[in-house]
Amino acid sequence: MIVGEQKPVAEIWEMVKGYRRIIIFGCNACVAVCHAGGAKQAEILASLLRMKAVQEGIEMNVEFSACERQCEPEFIMLHAETLKSQDLVLSIACGAGVNLVSALIHDIPIFPGLNTEFYGAVPQAGVFEEVCSGCGDCILHLTGGICPIVRCSKSLLNGPCGGTNKGKCEISPEVDCAWYLIVERMKKLGTLEKLFEIQPPKNWATATHGGPRRVVIEYIVKSEEAEEKKVKGG
Amino acid sequence: MKSGSNLERVIQSGQPAVTAELGPPMSAASDEVVRKAHVLKGFCDAANVTDCQTAVVRMSSIAAAVIALREGLEPVMQMTCRDRNRIAMQSDLLGAAALGLKNCLCIAGDHQKFGAAGKLKGHPGAKNVYDVDTIQLVGILKKMRDEGFQEGGDKVDVPPKFFIGATWTPLGDPVDFRPYNLKKKADAGADFIQTQGIYDMELFESQMEKARNLGIHEKTAILVGIIVPKSVMMLNYMNATVAGVSVPQQLIERMNRVKESAGDDKQQAKQIQEEEGIKITVELIQKALNIPGVKGVHIQAIEGETLIERIVKKAGLYPRPCT
Question: What is this structure's pTM?
Answer without folding.
Answer: 0.95
